[in-house]
């Protein structure tokens, strides 16, 4: 049996680092959120004014909606796409290993580089997309993808799809752990590939779905590079998200208190969404009797 | 009982954690080490791949040679201006201000001056040094009786126009009024030439330059005065005309950043742009031969005088307060060298930046400066009045909202009057 003192000792590094790098900054952010501060001069206590200001700011509402749309994009597009790739590669078609590497590769490339790359892919004059459309005679479809209020949000989320490789790998790992007897039995019963995926593979991937949801959720909540580099939050705040909102309030507007209030609300929103996902996961497990 | 190994492990862990939290800065160590040589660290955003960056390096090298074994100035380059400014703010907030740094002066944001961390140059401002500056520049930067910023860069933001493209459209001279300018835009457009480079990303620099010119032409040089409402009919008219001007710009104007917008002009894709002298370095020699420089057009019944210009704000140099009197004097000595006739001549001719200090250039020097800089200096010097650009004088909150407000107006989310009203509210 492990002695109590050893448990304390082993936990201490984690506790110290959590206190130093999470709890202390969180408390300090809470303190600053109650102050009017420009980052240099004396702080002035303003109570909950900064929260009031944030709640009444239409740009903050837009940022919350856009952040939630990022999360929806992850849950309803990104994860299903990763699953689709995993289901295809799990059948080990020719060259599957090469494709697996290719799909995972973007995860080791900086998001900044990818954001810039896509900025030029979608550029109105120089961009590959518009030039391809022109080449095939679809000139009427060309547009400033990142500068049009109707397309900017979707267009600047496009690069996210190439990060589906990590999601795919998590699904693949789980698929490889499914006992082959289940598929053999299904084959004997005459099940098609589609039926095997639908009735065997996908139901057994629930834990992987949960992991992917959590990972993608955190990615979306701290998303900053794409809106910052590709659109700057524009046009007309159409692509601003919570990360960019905080940055602007702090760096451009010099309102540290407002930025911290927005930061705390972001943590709250993140915790609420994460809690919902975990609760749904637990509920599903309970129903399944796990 | 905790074993000896465990105690050692715990102690080591605490040491590692605390070592990262040390509040001791390098300054004290540097001061102790350098008893003989005074080291001054200068923060700058001018990287050596720019003309101004190379000129600054040359100036610093010359000074270091002059004060060999006594003072050494080194440049710490932070090419990204917002990050650099944030670093300065953090250093001031931590009561460890940089030895030397520059920033955009904004009369609506005196946080640096009010920090009490900056060196007051006034006691060192002898008659000889004072005579280097314009009295109004010194007055503008003297806050609460202290001169914590030495006037340095204050460049005009002027109209660049491509004479070759103008000639193609049958325009022989730069328009004198905004009505004429819009008529010229029509002529250029008819010839398939895009009239003007505009942008809305980042600080919407080229677009807010146009807005500043339009507002100043109608309301005069007091239009952005601190404490005065900007929600005026003249401002609304300026916003309306800015919206109209966008119809004469490139497809990528909305969402374009500075490099895209300026490249459109530098590549000969647009006929006009409103920018500072730093653009000259981006124009190739062939294009420079066809570039004309002009002051702001007027409007009917407007309050601006013919030849008025918009300028960038002051970008002065400030220094952190020093514990050592010797170092303080060395910083002042270096600033005097920077603002001396020799230093100003080097930065103007080699660095192509226009400074607050007076400089008399001979014809030969103007010719050596190139066809564009010579015109730039001439138009700037002959301007009867000037106004600082809107993005440099509003409150930081309004400045941060201005680009998205221009975009909102362009997408008809609100009309020009709504845009001006929102901007004024953010500026309260």
Task: Describe the structure in your own words.
Chain A is an all-alpha fold. Chain A has one domain: MetI-like fold (Orthogonal Bundle). Chain A contains 14 helices and two strands. A two-stranded antiparallel ribbon of chain A has the order 1-2. In chain A, helix 5 packs parallel to helix 12 and helix 11 packs antiparallel against helix 14. The mean pLDDT of chain A is 91. Chain B has 428 residues and is α/β, with parallel strands linked by helices. Chain B folds into two domains: 162 residues, Periplasmic binding protein-like II (D-Maltodextrin-Binding Protein, domain 2, 3-Layer(aba) Sandwich), CATH 3.40.190.10; 212 residues, Periplasmic binding protein-like II (D-Maltodextrin-Binding Protein, domain 2, 3-Layer(aba) Sandwich), CATH 3.40.190.10. Chain B is 46% helix and 13% strand. Chain B contains 19 helices and 13 strands. In chain B, strands 7, 8, 9, 10, 11 and 13 form a six-stranded mixed beta sheet that branches. The radius of gyration of chain B is 24 Å and the shape is globular. At the A-B interface, helix 1 and helix 13 of A face helix 1, helix 4, helix 5 and helix 18 of B.
The percent range for strand residues of chain B is 5-15%
CATH architecture of chain A: Orthogonal Bundle
Q: State the helicity of chain A in percent bands.
A: 55-70%
Helix content of chain B: 40-55%
CATH architecture of the largest domain in chain B: 3-Layer(aba) Sandwich
Key terms:
heterodimer; A: 290 residues; mainly alpha; MetI-like fold; 2 strands; B: alpha/beta; D-Maltodextrin-Binding Protein, domain 2; 2 domains; 6-stranded mixed sheet; 3-stranded antiparallel sheet; 19 helices; 13 strands; 46% helix; 13% strand
